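Q: I'm writing up a methods section and want to include an example of the input and output format. Could you take the sequence below and give the corresponding predicted C-alpha coordinates, formatted cleanly so I can copy it straight into the document?
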Amino acid sequence: MSKLLRALFGLFVVLALVASGCGNDDDDAPVSEPAPAAPTEVPDEAAAAPEPDDEEEPAPAPEPDDEEEPAPAPEPGDEEEPEPAPEEPSDPNITELGGGAVIDITECPEEWDNYQGVTDSEIRFGSSSPRSGPLAGFGTISDGIQLYFDYVGPIDGRNVVVVGRDDAYIPARTVTNVEEMIDVENLLGFAGILGSANNLAVQKVLNENCIPQLLNLTGLPEWGDPNNFPWTTGALMSYETESRLWCQHIGDEFGGGATAAILSIDNDAGEAWRVAFNECAPEFGIEIVDEVKHDPGAEGVSSEVTTMAASGADVAILATTGTFCPRGVLGIATSAWDPLILVTNGCQRIALFWAPIGPLANGVRMMNTQKDLSDDSLADDEWVQFVRGALESQGVDPDAESHALGYIFGEVLHNVLLAAADMDGGINRTNVMRAMWQMNFDSRGALGDSPRAMDGANDSYMVEAGRIEELVVDEDGARYIPISDIFSFEGETGTFGN
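A: Here is the clean output for your methods example:
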Protein backbone atom coordinates (compact mmCIF):
# COMPACT_ATOMS: atom_id res chain seq x y z
CA MET A 1 0.00 0.00 0.00
CA SER A 2 1.32 3.38 -0.90
CA LYS A 3 2.27 5.78 1.77
CA LEU A 4 -0.63 8.04 0.77
CA LEU A 5 -3.18 5.27 1.02
CA ARG A 6 -1.86 4.22 4.45
CA ALA A 7 -2.25 7.80 5.66
CA LEU A 8 -5.82 8.06 4.35
CA PHE A 9 -6.71 4.70 5.90
CA GLY A 10 -5.31 5.78 9.32
CA LEU A 11 -7.25 9.03 9.13
CA PHE A 12 -10.44 7.08 8.44
CA VAL A 13 -9.90 4.82 11.50
CA VAL A 14 -9.27 7.80 13.75
CA LEU A 15 -12.46 9.52 12.58
CA ALA A 16 -14.42 6.32 13.16
CA LEU A 17 -13.08 5.96 16.71
CA VAL A 18 -13.92 9.59 17.54
CA ALA A 19 -17.45 9.17 16.28
CA SER A 20 -17.85 6.00 18.32
CA GLY A 21 -16.53 7.73 21.51
CA CYS A 22 -18.96 10.64 21.15
CA GLY A 23 -21.93 8.28 20.93
CA ASN A 24 -20.95 6.46 24.17
CA ASP A 25 -20.72 9.77 26.16
CA ASP A 26 -24.32 10.67 25.19
CA ASP A 27 -25.66 7.32 26.46
CA ASP A 28 -24.10 7.73 29.97
CA ALA A 29 -25.31 11.29 30.58
CA PRO A 30 -28.67 11.94 32.38
CA VAL A 31 -31.48 12.93 30.02
CA SER A 32 -34.61 14.98 30.40
CA GLU A 33 -36.28 13.63 27.20
CA PRO A 34 -36.56 9.94 26.30
CA ALA A 35 -34.01 8.82 23.72
CA PRO A 36 -35.62 8.14 20.29
CA ALA A 37 -33.70 4.90 19.76
CA ALA A 38 -34.81 1.67 21.47
CA PRO A 39 -32.55 0.44 24.24
CA THR A 40 -30.03 -2.22 23.48
CA GLU A 41 -31.48 -5.68 24.17
CA VAL A 42 -29.78 -7.99 26.61
CA PRO A 43 -30.27 -11.68 27.33
CA ASP A 44 -33.41 -12.70 29.35
CA GLU A 45 -31.44 -14.44 32.08
CA ALA A 46 -29.80 -11.15 33.08
CA ALA A 47 -32.53 -8.55 32.72
CA ALA A 48 -31.23 -5.06 33.09
CA ALA A 49 -32.84 -2.42 35.27
CA PRO A 50 -35.28 -0.31 33.23
CA GLU A 51 -33.84 2.73 31.59
CA PRO A 52 -35.33 6.18 32.26
CA ASP A 53 -36.76 6.25 28.69
CA ASP A 54 -39.19 3.36 29.44
CA GLU A 55 -42.14 5.74 29.81
CA GLU A 56 -45.16 3.43 29.59
CA GLU A 57 -45.00 2.03 33.13
CA PRO A 58 -41.80 3.14 34.72
CA ALA A 59 -40.95 1.09 37.76
CA PRO A 60 -40.40 3.25 40.81
CA ALA A 61 -36.94 3.58 42.04
CA PRO A 62 -36.43 0.91 44.70
CA GLU A 63 -37.14 2.09 48.23
CA PRO A 64 -34.58 1.15 50.84
CA ASP A 65 -37.09 -1.30 52.34
CA ASP A 66 -37.58 -3.05 48.93
CA GLU A 67 -33.93 -3.83 48.66
CA GLU A 68 -31.90 -5.98 50.90
CA GLU A 69 -32.91 -3.72 53.73
CA PRO A 70 -29.77 -1.93 54.64
CA ALA A 71 -30.08 0.01 57.86
CA PRO A 72 -31.75 3.34 57.10
CA ALA A 73 -29.85 6.46 57.74
CA PRO A 74 -30.61 7.32 61.37
CA GLU A 75 -33.06 10.14 61.94
CA PRO A 76 -32.03 12.58 64.62
CA GLY A 77 -34.60 11.11 67.01
CA ASP A 78 -33.57 7.51 66.19
CA GLU A 79 -29.99 7.95 67.16
CA GLU A 80 -28.85 6.82 70.52
CA GLU A 81 -29.82 9.80 72.61
CA PRO A 82 -26.82 11.54 74.02
CA GLU A 83 -26.71 12.20 77.70
CA PRO A 84 -28.77 15.36 78.35
CA ALA A 85 -26.88 18.39 79.36
CA PRO A 86 -26.98 18.66 83.13
CA GLU A 87 -29.76 20.94 84.35
CA GLU A 88 -28.90 23.97 86.26
CA PRO A 89 -28.94 22.95 89.91
CA SER A 90 -32.01 24.20 91.78
CA ASP A 91 -31.40 27.01 94.20
CA PRO A 92 -30.61 25.32 97.55
CA ASN A 93 -31.92 28.42 99.30
CA ILE A 94 -35.46 27.99 97.91
CA THR A 95 -38.04 25.51 99.21
CA GLU A 96 -41.10 25.07 96.99
CA LEU A 97 -44.37 24.88 98.95
CA GLY A 98 -46.82 24.60 96.04
CA GLY A 99 -48.74 27.03 93.86
CA GLY A 100 -45.74 29.33 93.55
CA ALA A 101 -45.34 29.85 97.29
CA VAL A 102 -41.76 29.43 98.47
CA ILE A 103 -39.48 29.75 101.44
CA ASP A 104 -36.28 31.68 100.70
CA ILE A 105 -33.76 31.18 103.49
CA THR A 106 -31.64 34.08 102.24
CA GLU A 107 -34.33 36.21 103.91
CA CYS A 108 -33.69 34.54 107.27
CA PRO A 109 -31.48 36.11 109.97
CA GLU A 110 -27.76 35.57 109.58
CA GLU A 111 -27.57 33.40 112.72
CA TRP A 112 -30.57 31.28 111.66
CA ASP A 113 -30.11 27.50 111.92
CA ASN A 114 -32.25 25.13 109.86
CA TYR A 115 -31.65 22.37 112.40
CA GLN A 116 -32.49 24.44 115.46
CA GLY A 117 -34.40 22.31 117.95
CA VAL A 118 -33.38 19.02 116.32
CA THR A 119 -30.81 17.19 118.44
CA ASP A 120 -29.52 13.64 118.36
CA SER A 121 -32.30 12.61 120.72
CA GLU A 122 -35.09 15.21 120.47
CA ILE A 123 -37.33 17.27 118.19
CA ARG A 124 -38.47 20.25 120.26
CA PHE A 125 -41.60 22.40 119.85
CA GLY A 126 -43.09 25.18 121.94
CA SER A 127 -46.73 26.06 122.60
CA SER A 128 -48.67 28.78 124.38
CA SER A 129 -52.27 28.30 125.48
CA PRO A 130 -54.75 29.35 128.19
CA ARG A 131 -54.30 27.25 131.31
CA SER A 132 -56.19 29.85 133.32
CA GLY A 133 -59.08 32.17 132.58
CA PRO A 134 -62.37 31.50 130.69
CA LEU A 135 -60.69 29.30 128.07
CA ALA A 136 -58.59 27.25 130.47
CA GLY A 137 -60.25 24.04 129.27
CA PHE A 138 -58.19 24.28 126.08
CA GLY A 139 -54.89 24.57 127.92
CA THR A 140 -54.25 20.84 127.97
CA ILE A 141 -54.25 20.43 124.19
CA SER A 142 -50.47 20.80 124.10
CA ASP A 143 -50.27 18.27 126.92
CA GLY A 144 -52.31 15.92 124.76
CA ILE A 145 -49.90 16.40 121.85
CA GLN A 146 -47.05 15.44 124.17
CA LEU A 147 -48.99 12.41 125.43
CA TYR A 148 -49.61 11.31 121.83
CA PHE A 149 -45.89 11.28 121.03
CA ASP A 150 -45.05 9.65 124.34
CA TYR A 151 -47.42 6.87 123.29
CA VAL A 152 -46.33 6.38 119.65
CA GLY A 153 -42.63 6.69 120.44
CA PRO A 154 -39.68 8.37 118.67
CA ILE A 155 -39.79 9.83 115.18
CA ASP A 156 -36.65 9.19 113.13
CA GLY A 157 -34.97 8.02 116.33
CA ARG A 158 -35.83 11.19 118.24
CA ASN A 159 -38.37 11.90 120.96
CA VAL A 160 -40.81 14.74 120.28
CA VAL A 161 -40.88 17.26 123.13
CA VAL A 162 -43.59 19.94 123.46
CA VAL A 163 -42.86 22.77 125.90
CA GLY A 164 -46.11 24.48 126.97
CA ARG A 165 -46.76 27.77 128.78
CA ASP A 166 -49.89 29.50 130.06
CA ASP A 167 -50.99 32.78 128.46
CA ALA A 168 -54.55 32.96 129.90
CA TYR A 169 -55.73 33.78 126.33
CA ILE A 170 -54.04 37.19 126.60
CA PRO A 171 -52.09 38.06 123.41
CA ALA A 172 -49.43 40.09 125.25
CA ARG A 173 -48.61 37.08 127.39
CA THR A 174 -48.43 34.91 124.28
CA VAL A 175 -45.79 37.28 122.90
CA THR A 176 -43.79 37.10 126.14
CA ASN A 177 -44.01 33.31 126.20
CA VAL A 178 -42.90 32.93 122.59
CA GLU A 179 -39.99 35.37 122.87
CA GLU A 180 -38.70 33.70 126.04
CA MET A 181 -39.00 30.21 124.61
CA ILE A 182 -37.12 31.23 121.45
CA ASP A 183 -34.26 32.42 123.66
CA VAL A 184 -34.01 29.54 126.10
CA GLU A 185 -35.76 26.40 124.87
CA ASN A 186 -33.91 25.43 121.63
CA LEU A 187 -37.06 24.93 119.54
CA LEU A 188 -37.58 23.80 115.96
CA GLY A 189 -40.78 25.84 116.04
CA PHE A 190 -44.19 26.25 117.67
CA ALA A 191 -47.26 24.02 117.41
CA GLY A 192 -50.78 24.44 118.74
CA ILE A 193 -50.87 28.05 119.93
CA LEU A 194 -54.51 28.80 120.72
CA GLY A 195 -56.43 31.95 119.79
CA SER A 196 -56.65 34.18 116.73
CA ALA A 197 -55.44 37.36 118.41
CA ASN A 198 -52.72 35.36 120.18
CA ASN A 199 -51.37 33.88 116.97
CA LEU A 200 -51.60 37.18 115.13
CA ALA A 201 -49.52 38.76 117.90
CA VAL A 202 -46.57 36.46 117.15
CA GLN A 203 -47.04 35.69 113.45
CA LYS A 204 -44.82 38.47 112.15
CA VAL A 205 -41.90 37.83 114.49
CA LEU A 206 -41.98 34.09 113.81
CA ASN A 207 -42.06 34.58 110.04
CA GLU A 208 -39.33 37.22 110.09
CA ASN A 209 -37.14 34.81 112.04
CA CYS A 210 -38.05 31.81 109.86
CA ILE A 211 -39.50 29.83 112.78
CA PRO A 212 -42.38 27.40 112.06
CA GLN A 213 -45.77 28.39 113.50
CA LEU A 214 -47.73 25.17 112.98
CA LEU A 215 -51.30 24.13 113.65
CA ASN A 216 -52.69 27.41 114.96
CA LEU A 217 -55.75 26.35 117.00
CA THR A 218 -58.06 28.84 115.35
CA GLY A 219 -59.85 29.06 112.00
CA LEU A 220 -58.84 32.60 111.12
CA PRO A 221 -58.66 32.74 107.30
CA GLU A 222 -55.31 34.56 107.48
CA TRP A 223 -53.55 31.29 108.31
CA GLY A 224 -54.00 30.21 104.68
CA ASP A 225 -51.52 32.74 103.26
CA PRO A 226 -48.28 30.96 102.27
CA ASN A 227 -47.29 33.69 99.81
CA ASN A 228 -46.87 36.22 102.60
CA PHE A 229 -46.53 34.04 105.69
CA PRO A 230 -45.03 30.72 104.58
CA TRP A 231 -44.04 29.77 108.15
CA THR A 232 -47.65 29.82 109.46
CA THR A 233 -50.42 27.21 109.08
CA GLY A 234 -53.82 26.67 110.68
CA ALA A 235 -55.44 23.59 112.19
CA LEU A 236 -59.19 24.28 112.01
CA MET A 237 -61.80 24.87 109.32
CA SER A 238 -61.66 28.45 108.08
CA TYR A 239 -64.24 30.66 109.78
CA GLU A 240 -65.34 31.81 106.33
CA THR A 241 -66.16 28.23 105.31
CA GLU A 242 -67.89 27.52 108.64
CA SER A 243 -70.03 30.67 108.40
CA ARG A 244 -71.07 29.90 104.86
CA LEU A 245 -72.21 26.44 105.94
CA TRP A 246 -74.29 28.06 108.69
CA CYS A 247 -75.96 30.20 106.03
CA GLN A 248 -76.61 27.20 103.83
CA HIS A 249 -78.08 25.19 106.71
CA ILE A 250 -80.39 28.03 107.77
CA GLY A 251 -81.54 28.39 104.17
CA ASP A 252 -82.26 24.64 104.00
CA GLU A 253 -84.15 24.69 107.32
CA PHE A 254 -86.28 27.78 106.74
CA GLY A 255 -86.44 27.93 102.96
CA GLY A 256 -85.57 31.62 102.98
CA GLY A 257 -86.97 34.49 105.01
CA ALA A 258 -85.26 33.55 108.30
CA THR A 259 -84.10 36.16 110.80
CA ALA A 260 -80.88 35.81 112.81
CA ALA A 261 -79.15 37.41 115.78
CA ILE A 262 -75.38 37.11 116.28
CA LEU A 263 -73.36 37.05 119.48
CA SER A 264 -69.65 37.36 118.63
CA ILE A 265 -66.54 37.46 120.76
CA ASP A 266 -64.92 40.88 120.45
CA ASN A 267 -61.63 39.85 118.83
CA ASP A 268 -60.30 38.83 115.43
CA ALA A 269 -62.03 35.45 115.50
CA GLY A 270 -65.45 36.89 116.35
CA GLU A 271 -65.07 39.53 113.68
CA ALA A 272 -64.14 36.94 111.05
CA TRP A 273 -67.24 34.86 111.83
CA ARG A 274 -69.48 37.93 111.93
CA VAL A 275 -68.25 39.41 108.66
CA ALA A 276 -68.42 36.10 106.81
CA PHE A 277 -71.97 35.42 108.02
CA ASN A 278 -73.07 38.92 106.97
CA GLU A 279 -71.64 38.28 103.51
CA CYS A 280 -73.46 35.00 102.89
CA ALA A 281 -76.77 35.76 104.65
CA PRO A 282 -78.44 37.67 101.78
CA GLU A 283 -77.74 34.85 99.34
CA PHE A 284 -79.82 32.49 101.50
CA GLY A 285 -82.60 34.96 102.31
CA ILE A 286 -81.44 35.55 105.89
CA GLU A 287 -82.09 38.89 107.57
CA ILE A 288 -79.72 39.76 110.41
CA VAL A 289 -81.83 41.62 112.98
CA ASP A 290 -79.32 42.00 115.82
CA GLU A 291 -75.55 41.84 116.39
CA VAL A 292 -73.98 41.88 119.84
CA LYS A 293 -70.32 41.56 120.89
CA HIS A 294 -68.87 40.41 124.20
CA ASP A 295 -65.56 41.00 125.96
CA PRO A 296 -63.15 38.01 125.70
CA GLY A 297 -62.30 38.49 129.38
CA ALA A 298 -65.89 38.72 130.62
CA GLU A 299 -67.27 36.39 133.27
CA GLY A 300 -70.44 35.74 131.32
CA VAL A 301 -72.72 36.85 128.49
CA SER A 302 -76.15 36.99 130.17
CA SER A 303 -76.81 40.66 129.37
CA GLU A 304 -75.84 40.15 125.73
CA VAL A 305 -78.19 37.17 125.45
CA THR A 306 -81.03 39.21 126.97
CA THR A 307 -80.50 41.83 124.28
CA MET A 308 -80.53 39.21 121.53
CA ALA A 309 -83.67 37.55 122.92
CA ALA A 310 -85.58 40.79 122.53
CA SER A 311 -85.10 40.50 118.76
CA GLY A 312 -87.16 37.31 118.62
CA ALA A 313 -84.92 36.06 115.83
CA ASP A 314 -85.47 32.61 114.33
CA VAL A 315 -81.78 31.74 114.69
CA ALA A 316 -79.15 32.52 117.33
CA ILE A 317 -75.53 32.43 116.12
CA LEU A 318 -72.99 32.07 118.93
CA ALA A 319 -69.77 33.12 117.18
CA THR A 320 -67.64 32.66 120.26
CA THR A 321 -65.63 29.99 122.04
CA GLY A 322 -64.78 28.36 125.36
CA THR A 323 -67.16 28.65 128.28
CA PHE A 324 -69.00 31.46 126.48
CA CYS A 325 -70.71 28.80 124.35
CA PRO A 326 -72.49 26.95 127.19
CA ARG A 327 -73.15 30.21 129.05
CA GLY A 328 -74.83 31.66 125.98
CA VAL A 329 -76.90 28.50 125.47
CA LEU A 330 -77.85 28.43 129.14
CA GLY A 331 -79.07 32.04 128.92
CA ILE A 332 -81.21 31.22 125.89
CA ALA A 333 -82.58 28.00 127.41
CA THR A 334 -83.73 29.79 130.55
CA SER A 335 -85.47 32.57 128.60
CA ALA A 336 -88.72 32.62 126.67
CA TRP A 337 -86.76 32.80 123.41
CA ASP A 338 -86.68 29.52 121.47
CA PRO A 339 -84.46 29.99 118.40
CA LEU A 340 -82.46 27.44 116.43
CA ILE A 341 -78.99 27.71 118.02
CA LEU A 342 -75.79 27.40 116.00
CA VAL A 343 -72.43 27.49 117.82
CA THR A 344 -68.86 27.26 116.60
CA ASN A 345 -67.13 23.89 116.16
CA GLY A 346 -64.53 24.92 118.73
CA CYS A 347 -67.22 24.25 121.35
CA GLN A 348 -67.85 20.69 120.20
CA ARG A 349 -66.49 18.73 123.16
CA ILE A 350 -69.46 17.37 125.13
CA ALA A 351 -67.58 16.50 128.32
CA LEU A 352 -65.97 19.92 128.52
CA PHE A 353 -68.80 22.26 127.49
CA TRP A 354 -72.19 20.58 127.45
CA ALA A 355 -72.18 17.96 130.20
CA PRO A 356 -72.19 20.74 132.86
CA ILE A 357 -75.59 22.07 131.64
CA GLY A 358 -77.02 18.66 130.68
CA PRO A 359 -80.42 18.56 128.89
CA LEU A 360 -80.50 22.37 128.62
CA ALA A 361 -78.02 21.91 125.77
CA ASN A 362 -80.47 19.79 123.79
CA GLY A 363 -80.89 20.91 120.21
CA VAL A 364 -77.64 22.87 119.89
CA ARG A 365 -76.22 22.51 116.36
CA MET A 366 -72.76 23.05 114.94
CA MET A 367 -70.53 22.29 111.98
CA ASN A 368 -68.34 19.49 113.35
CA THR A 369 -65.13 18.39 111.66
CA GLN A 370 -63.58 15.88 114.05
CA LYS A 371 -64.50 13.09 116.44
CA ASP A 372 -65.34 13.80 120.07
CA LEU A 373 -64.34 11.10 122.53
CA SER A 374 -67.24 12.04 124.80
CA ASP A 375 -69.81 11.49 122.01
CA ASP A 376 -71.61 8.28 123.07
CA SER A 377 -72.53 7.53 119.45
CA LEU A 378 -68.82 7.03 118.69
CA ALA A 379 -68.11 4.56 121.47
CA ASP A 380 -67.26 1.80 118.98
CA ASP A 381 -65.19 4.01 116.65
CA GLU A 382 -61.65 2.70 116.14
CA TRP A 383 -59.99 6.09 116.68
CA VAL A 384 -62.05 6.83 119.79
CA GLN A 385 -61.15 3.45 121.27
CA PHE A 386 -57.47 3.98 120.45
CA VAL A 387 -57.33 7.40 122.14
CA ARG A 388 -59.34 6.27 125.17
CA GLY A 389 -57.11 3.25 125.65
CA ALA A 390 -53.91 5.24 125.19
CA LEU A 391 -54.90 8.00 127.63
CA GLU A 392 -56.10 5.51 130.23
CA SER A 393 -52.79 3.65 129.96
CA GLN A 394 -51.07 6.99 130.62
CA GLY A 395 -53.15 7.64 133.72
CA VAL A 396 -55.24 10.41 132.14
CA ASP A 397 -59.05 10.62 132.19
CA PRO A 398 -60.10 10.62 128.50
CA ASP A 399 -63.06 12.88 129.31
CA ALA A 400 -61.06 15.42 131.28
CA GLU A 401 -60.28 18.75 129.67
CA SER A 402 -58.74 18.64 126.15
CA HIS A 403 -56.08 15.95 126.19
CA ALA A 404 -58.04 13.99 123.56
CA LEU A 405 -57.91 16.98 121.18
CA GLY A 406 -54.14 16.90 121.56
CA TYR A 407 -54.17 13.40 120.11
CA ILE A 408 -55.99 14.66 117.00
CA PHE A 409 -53.41 17.37 116.35
CA GLY A 410 -50.61 15.03 117.38
CA GLU A 411 -51.68 12.70 114.59
CA VAL A 412 -51.29 15.55 112.09
CA LEU A 413 -47.87 16.60 113.36
CA HIS A 414 -46.79 12.95 113.38
CA ASN A 415 -47.56 12.60 109.65
CA VAL A 416 -45.75 15.86 108.90
CA LEU A 417 -42.61 14.77 110.74
CA LEU A 418 -42.59 11.38 109.02
CA ALA A 419 -42.81 13.10 105.62
CA ALA A 420 -40.02 15.55 106.53
CA ALA A 421 -37.80 12.67 107.68
CA ASP A 422 -37.99 11.18 104.16
CA MET A 423 -36.85 14.39 102.46
CA ASP A 424 -33.27 15.29 101.59
CA GLY A 425 -31.75 16.68 104.74
CA GLY A 426 -34.29 14.97 107.00
CA ILE A 427 -36.21 16.75 109.74
CA ASN A 428 -35.39 20.45 109.79
CA ARG A 429 -37.34 23.68 109.69
CA THR A 430 -37.71 24.02 105.91
CA ASN A 431 -38.57 20.36 105.38
CA VAL A 432 -41.18 20.48 108.13
CA MET A 433 -42.83 23.49 106.46
CA ARG A 434 -42.71 21.82 103.06
CA ALA A 435 -44.24 18.65 104.52
CA MET A 436 -46.93 20.71 106.25
CA TRP A 437 -47.93 22.65 103.14
CA GLN A 438 -47.88 19.45 101.06
CA MET A 439 -49.61 17.13 103.55
CA ASN A 440 -52.15 14.61 102.26
CA PHE A 441 -53.42 11.83 104.48
CA ASP A 442 -56.75 10.49 105.73
CA SER A 443 -57.18 11.53 109.34
CA ARG A 444 -58.52 8.89 111.71
CA GLY A 445 -59.60 11.68 114.04
CA ALA A 446 -61.69 13.47 111.39
CA LEU A 447 -65.38 12.81 110.83
CA GLY A 448 -65.65 10.34 107.98
CA ASP A 449 -61.87 9.91 108.19
CA SER A 450 -61.75 12.94 105.90
CA PRO A 451 -58.42 13.99 104.40
CA ARG A 452 -56.08 16.51 105.87
CA ALA A 453 -54.49 17.97 102.77
CA MET A 454 -52.91 21.17 101.48
CA ASP A 455 -51.00 22.28 98.39
CA GLY A 456 -49.29 25.54 99.21
CA ALA A 457 -50.97 28.52 97.58
CA ASN A 458 -53.27 26.25 95.55
CA ASP A 459 -54.99 24.87 98.65
CA SER A 460 -54.02 26.56 101.89
CA TYR A 461 -56.55 25.13 104.34
CA MET A 462 -56.05 21.80 106.07
CA VAL A 463 -59.66 21.18 107.18
CA GLU A 464 -62.28 21.46 104.46
CA ALA A 465 -64.85 18.82 105.42
CA GLY A 466 -67.52 18.52 108.12
CA ARG A 467 -71.22 18.13 108.75
CA ILE A 468 -74.02 19.80 110.67
CA GLU A 469 -74.75 17.84 113.86
CA GLU A 470 -77.30 18.30 116.66
CA LEU A 471 -76.59 17.59 120.31
CA VAL A 472 -78.97 15.23 122.08
CA VAL A 473 -78.77 14.83 125.86
CA ASP A 474 -81.08 12.32 127.56
CA GLU A 475 -81.08 9.41 130.00
CA ASP A 476 -78.96 7.41 127.55
CA GLY A 477 -76.16 9.95 127.59
CA ALA A 478 -75.04 12.71 125.23
CA ARG A 479 -74.37 12.36 121.54
CA TYR A 480 -74.35 14.18 118.24
CA ILE A 481 -76.91 13.26 115.60
CA PRO A 482 -75.96 14.05 111.97
CA ILE A 483 -78.31 16.57 110.39
CA SER A 484 -76.50 16.66 107.04
CA ASP A 485 -74.17 14.54 104.99
CA ILE A 486 -70.49 15.39 105.16
CA PHE A 487 -69.74 18.53 103.18
CA SER A 488 -66.35 18.29 101.50
CA PHE A 489 -64.65 21.25 99.88
CA GLU A 490 -61.27 19.55 99.62
CA GLY A 491 -58.97 21.59 97.40
CA GLU A 492 -61.70 24.22 96.74
CA THR A 493 -61.21 26.91 99.37
CA GLY A 494 -58.00 28.20 97.79
CA THR A 495 -55.80 30.63 99.64
CA PHE A 496 -56.30 33.74 101.76
CA GLY A 497 -57.35 36.74 99.71
CA ASN A 498 -58.20 34.58 96.70
